[in-house]
């Protein structure tokens, strides 16, 4: 299995150490401008660190080829390519490029991986539909299918539920939980504290370019932490054994 490690410093990012391994869904929290996307991009070698290093599976990320890195970590960035008229199946098949596949020439193992990803994302009925005709929720699932088709041990998703309605937000996060249940790992950026409390195994809190807390939901999701990081008052409600976060007013 692959673990993602970063102990690095970059512009807008203070010296920060991060490690995410298999079997956990870690949620990265923090206000806009806290450095969440920068930290992810440094950890994946997409931005240079001014000091320190990032490792994927124990290997320095800057020594990995782009294809090898993509085989180890499937990255779903905040800004995703626009939907073209390509069929949904072809969009998902892009996740196999790191394995040497090409559109129209999928080897049996690549086609099987695409089939599994489409099934996991409940997209089989839409497999031949042009991607640009999908709804926002369907397109989000199609991009996630592309990431899952890579069958990389680690998935890194930057705001994968942004602009989705509640039903599709839960659907996407359940897919990521399923990936973790199968032995994978996931690092996910979220802004919804209630969703983070429901789905995360671990919370990573960022503020001002640095991690200020790292731990379980029970240990770190407190009104004091929410006030410190976000500057808002919050109430935590235990309903039938499940923690709910209700945000009230700015402080």
Task: Give a nutshell description of this structure.
By secondary structure, this protein is of the alpha/beta class.
Characterise the protein shown here.
It comes from Sphingomonas lenta. With 251 residues, this protein is α/β, with parallel strands linked by helices. The chain has a single domain (4-80, 152-250), classed as 3-Layer(aba) Sandwich (Rossmann fold). The protein has nine helices and twelve strands. The strands form three sheets. The protein has a six-stranded mixed β-sheet with strand order 6-7-8-3-9-10, with helices on both faces.
Low-confidence stretches: none
CATH topology: the name is Rossmann fold
Q: How many domains?
A: 1
* Bulk shape: globular
Number of strands: 12
Distance between the termini: 43 Å
CATH superfamily: P-loop containing nucleotide triphosphate hydrolases
Helix content: 25-40%
- The largest sheet has its strands arranged as 6-7-8-3-9-10
Helical run tally:
9
Name the structural class. alpha/beta
Q: What sequence of helices (H) and strands (E) makes up the elements?
A: EEEHEEHEHHHEHEHEEHHEE
* Overall mean pLDDT: 88
């Amino acid at each position: 299995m692959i673990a993602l490690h970063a102990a690095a410093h970059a512009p807008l990012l203070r010296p920060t150490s991060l490690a995410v391994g298999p079997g956990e869904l870690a949620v990265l929290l923090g206000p806009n401008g806290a450095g969440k996307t920068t930290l992810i991009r440094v950890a994946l070698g997409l931005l240079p660190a001014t000091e320190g290093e990032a490792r994927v599976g124990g290997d320095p990320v800057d020594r990995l080829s782009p294809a090898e890195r993509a085989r180890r970590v499937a990255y779903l960035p905040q800004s995703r390519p626009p939907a073209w008229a390509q069929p949904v199946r072809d969009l998902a098949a892009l996740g196999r490029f790191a394995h040497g596949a090409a559109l129209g020439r999928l080897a049996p193992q690549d086609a099987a991986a695409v089939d599994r990803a489409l099934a996991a994302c409940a997209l089989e009925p839409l497999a031949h539909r042009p991607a640009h005709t999908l709804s926002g929720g369907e397109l989000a699932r199609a991009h996630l299918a592309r990431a899952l088709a890579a069958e990389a041990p680690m998935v890194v998703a930057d705001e994968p539920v942004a602009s989705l309605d509640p039903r599709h937000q839960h659907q996407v996060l359940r897919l990521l939980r399923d990936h973790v249940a199968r032995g994978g790992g996931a690092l996910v950026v979220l802004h919804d504290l209630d969703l983070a409390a429901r789905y995360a195994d671990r919370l990573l809190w960022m503020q001002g370019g640095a991690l200020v807390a790292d731990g379980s939901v029970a240990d770190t999701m407190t009104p004091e932490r929410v006030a410190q990081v976000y500057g808002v008052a919050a109430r935590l409600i235990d309903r039938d054994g499940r923690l709910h976060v209700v945000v009230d007013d700015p402080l």
